Amino acid sequence: TNSKPSGQKDIPDTWCIAKPNAPQDKLQGFINYACGEVDCGVVQPGGQCYDPNTVLSHASYVLDLIYIYRKSCNPDIGIITTVDPSYGDCKYP
């Protein structure tokens, strides 16, 4: 059995995804900047998360990569969710 030490609470998994109403130009700018720091191959043509080929979808994945890398979610364009945004073959880390 996996018992937790007494007093320790379950912390849900969280992801950082793009706000649905975030401006497209800000999302694209973030993608361009962030992909200089992290590997964005998964949202490029042929990548598991390329489709749907939308700025919002790509930005969500890249925001989550940066969230893991930096431990922070960009508050201007991102929101924290406890619902796994993975779909099909596209698995969010």
Automatic annotation (TrEMBL):
Keywords assigned by UniProt, alphabetized: Signal
Domain called X8: residue spans: 14-92
GO cellular component, one term: plasmodesma
Tagged with keyword Secreted: no
Keyword Transport (UniProt): no
InterPro entries assigned: X8, X8_dom_prot
Domain of life: Eukaryota
Protein name: X8 domain-containing protein
Protein source organism: Erythranthe guttata (Yellow monkey flower)
